[in-house]
Amino acid sequence: MLRITIRIVLLMTLSQQILGNVVILLADDLGIETELYGMDACKTPHLMSLARRGVVHEKTWTVVSSCSPSRASILTGLPPHQNGMYGLHQGYHNFQSFTQVKTISNILSDSGIRTGIIGKKHVGPNDVYKFDYEVTEEHYPIMQVGRNITLIRDKVREFLSVNDSRPFFLYVGFHDPHRCGHTNPEFGQFCEKFGNGDPEMGTIPDWTPVAYEADQVHVPYYVQDTPVAREDLAAQYTTISRLDQGVGVVLQELERAGALEETLILFTSDNGSPYPNGRTNTYEPGLQVPLIVSSPRDQNSWNTRTNELTSLLDIVPTVLDWFNISYLNYTMFYYNMTVTLTGRTLLRDDVNTTWFNHKYIYASHNLHEVTMYYPMRSVRTARFKLIHNLAHRMPFPIDQDFFISDVFQDILNRSLADDLPWYKTLDDYYYRPQFELFDLKIDFTEKNNMADNPHYKKVFHKLFNHLHKWQNITQDPWLCSPGGVLQDSGDYADEHQCFPLYNGL
Ligand SMILES: *[C@@H]1O[C@H](CO)[C@@H](O)[C@H](O)[C@H]1NC(C)=O
Ligand SMILES: *[C@@H]1O[C@H](CO)[C@@H](O)[C@H](O)[C@H]1NC(C)=O
Ligand SMILES: *[C@@H]1O[C@H](CO)[C@@H](O)[C@H](O)[C@H]1NC(C)=O
Ligand SMILES: *[C@@H]1O[C@H](CO)[C@@H](O)[C@H](O)[C@H]1NC(C)=O
Ligand SMILES: *[C@@H]1O[C@H](CO)[C@@H](O)[C@H](O)[C@H]1NC(C)=O
Ligand SMILES: *[C@@H]1O[C@H](CO)[C@@H](O)[C@H](O)[C@H]1NC(C)=O
Ligand SMILES: *[C@@H]1O[C@H](CO)[C@@H](O)[C@H](O)[C@H]1NC(C)=O
Ligand SMILES: *[C@@H]1O[C@H](CO)[C@@H](O)[C@H](O)[C@H]1NC(C)=O
Q1: Residue 404 beta carbon below 6 angstroms from any ligand 6 atom
Q2: How many angstroms separate the alpha carbon of residue 354 from the centre of ligand 3?
Q3: How many helices and strands, by DSSP H and E, does the chain display?
Q4: How far, CA to CA in Å, does 341 sit from each of 335, 377, 496?
Q5: Which atom of ligand 6 is found nearest the CA of 412?
Q6: Ligand 3: which of 11, 107, 324 to mutate, judged by most atoms within 8 Å of the beta carbon?
Q7: Which residue from 318, 354, 356 has its CB within 8 A of the most atoms of ligand 5, so it is best to mutate?
Q8: 255 - beta bridge partners?
Q9: 350 pLDDT above the threshold of 80
Q10: For residue 455, how many C-alpha atoms fall within 13 Å in the half-sphere facing its CB?
Q11: Residue 11, pLDDT above cutoff 60
Q12: What average pLDDT does range 41-49 have in this prediction?
């Protein structure tokens, strides 16, 4: 009898444990340029302290290096070509996910979990991306909900103080360290002056600005080492420090509410940093993102690092796993193929203490701004990477935000003056071959294209076939591009086929 009681009590505590919460902390355009990844010039003490409560993933990639498409992928577990968010959501860009798509917030809400979003949302339509509690740029100025960490603290506190016994899912979308020169140049290139206490900049009581000098920064290999670029990086670091302190503020609020010990915390970013070869690219600086997984159920994993290959498509499966909820079985459009998640959970179970490791990591890009059609598909393994530039005869497009930055203007000016200390030329950057194959083990800067090298023929075909398979499983409308046309309805409804165009591609 006693034994049975103990067992029941044990089961009850277990199931209570299973009812923990999830918090996603999302940075905006943060790559791996911080001390979290050994770049000691850029200090992030709060991320370092979160890392001591979790696992730092050394090898994580977004599926697309663009804001709305990436956020839509994080929240659906599906790549942009499958969830419909082909490009940016706001203003005249106007992209939306398909109304049939199931998002993690809606699935959780239907399963009795309270959902909230604070900060940058940047996805739609609203019915598809619904949260019970919403404080986003749709209701407030983005500067306030995304960069004012005192306001963020107030809103997190409000969300956590609701008297509701249901477990919660809270998504905090920081707008830092996104560029600012395109929309709010009065606050500096990265809004690094916003709220710093200077005349007309206002104050953010929870933020202690950290200033950097141009000679203190670490200039990454993909950025030109010039005074202009160094100034820009110094400003970026200051804004990264506000993000870092914002993470600290949210963790403090969780602790204050007594929720820290029962909450899975994921920290990551939508895409890499806003520099050439970074955001909007499928090169590593565009796709590689930070990831900390802090699970109170797996304290053995705390303060460790892993090299396993992971993708932001793993977030939906991870959250579902945490709440022990299954993905839904549904189809979209006239396809009879069930929509399946290609990500896997990042949580270890008690028995199996090895992490899940992807052998292949995929990316899919179509547009950033509406004018920037430049579809790319890519696949990588631990060693090799293949990029397929589907529209390679077009110049690679440049977004408004990056164009106006001093860093890009510096590239233009110096290219004209033939005085650019960079690892590429502007021409190389604009005009890319159809296929780019890199052996990252000997060429981590992705400079030497092996696509036509006979020694890499087998690798090329293997990667290409895996990419094609993934595009097929994820119902990619670009499956046959640019050399062919996909037929998938009418006579070809049951057997989709690629038909050649004889265009030489
Ligand atoms: C919280 O809600 C429960 C159930 O609705 C109620 O009994 C309790 O008094 C509430 N507590 C507070 C502090 O409002
Ligand atoms: C940030 O938010 C706080 C709280 O709402 C407010 O007092 C402060 O003025 C805001 N700071 C800026 C720079 O807008
Ligand atoms: C998870 O859910 C399944 C089916 O809904 C149930 O059988 C199982 O006991 C649950 N696992 C835990 C650990 O609660
Ligand atoms: C999904 O639903 C279809 C049609 O109802 C069924 O044939 C299939 O077995 C289901 N798949 C899963 C994984 O439950
Ligand atoms: C542990 O997980 C790995 C990766 O998912 C899997 O390959 C392996 O078979 C699992 N082992 C056990 C004992 O479940
Ligand atoms: C680029 O050149 C233009 C025209 O000379 C100049 O106005 C601008 O300040 C330069 N920008 C940078 C970042 O060097
Ligand atoms: C989908 O399944 C339905 C019912 O099984 C069938 O009538 C229809 O032809 C199928 N459509 C396609 C595109 O395969
Ligand atoms: C996609 O995969 C299905 C199922 O394996 C296969 O029948 C079909 O031929 C593939 N389509 C293309 C265009 O490769």
Answers
A1: no
A2: 21
A3: 14, 16
A4: 16, 18, 20
A5: 1
A6: 324
A7: 354
A8: none
A9: no
A10: 4
A11: no
A12: 98
Amino acid of residue 435: F
Hey, which bits of 339-422 come out as E strands?
A: 361-365, 376-380, 384-389
Which tokens in the block code for residue 13? 């505590």
389-394: average pLDDT:
98
Give the full edge-to-edge strand order of the sheet including 114-119: 133-136, 114-119, 168-173, 21-27, 263-269, 291-294, 55-57, 304-306
> Given this model, what pLDDT does residue 349 score?
72
Distance CA 389, CA 397 (A): 12
- The mean-pLDDT minimum among 7-11, 87-91, 97-101, 187-191 falls in 7-11
Ligand 5 center–CA 308 separation, angstroms: 14
- Which ligand 2 atom is at minimum distance from the Cα of 194? 13
C-alpha Rg value of the chain to the nearest Å: 23
For residues 196 and 145, give the distance between their C-alpha atoms in angstroms, rounded to a whole number: 16
What ligand 5 atom has the least distance to the C-alpha of 355?
A: 4
Residue 173, strand partner residues: 26, 119
Cα-flanking dihedrals φ and ψ of residue 369, to 5°? -75, 160
Which residue, among 448, 306, 277, has the nearest Cα to 376 in the 3D structure?
277
- 147-172 per-residue burial string, b: 16 or more CB within 10 A, e: under 16: bbbbbbbbbbeebbeeeeebbbbbbb
Lowest-pLDDT range, 18-27, 277-286, 439-448?
18-27
Closest to 107 in 3D by CA, of 284, 296, 323, 398:
323
Crossing angle of helices 149-160 and 227-256, in 10° steps, is 20
CA 246-249-253 angle, to 5 degrees, is 145
Q: Active-site residue 67, yes or no?
A: yes
User: Ligand 4 centre and the CA of 328: distance in Å?
Assistant: 10
Tell me how crowded residue 325 is: count the other CB atoms within 10 A of its CB: 16
CA atoms of 448 and 450, how far apart (whole Å): 6
Rounded mean pLDDT of 277-289?
Answer: 98
pLDDT over 70 at 352, yes or no: no
Name the DSSP class of 12.
H
Q: How far apart are CA 76 and CA 70, in angstroms?
A: 10
Q: Which amino acid is at 242?
A: R
Residues 6+ apart with CB under 8 A from 25: 172, 174, 247, 250, 265, 266, 267, 268
| Nearest C-alpha neighbor of 388 from the set 472, 311, 478 | 478
CA dihedral (50, 54, 59, 65) in degrees, to 10, reads -50
Of all atoms in ligand 5, which is nearest to the CA of residue 357? 4
- For ligand 6, atom 14, the nearest C-alpha belongs to 410
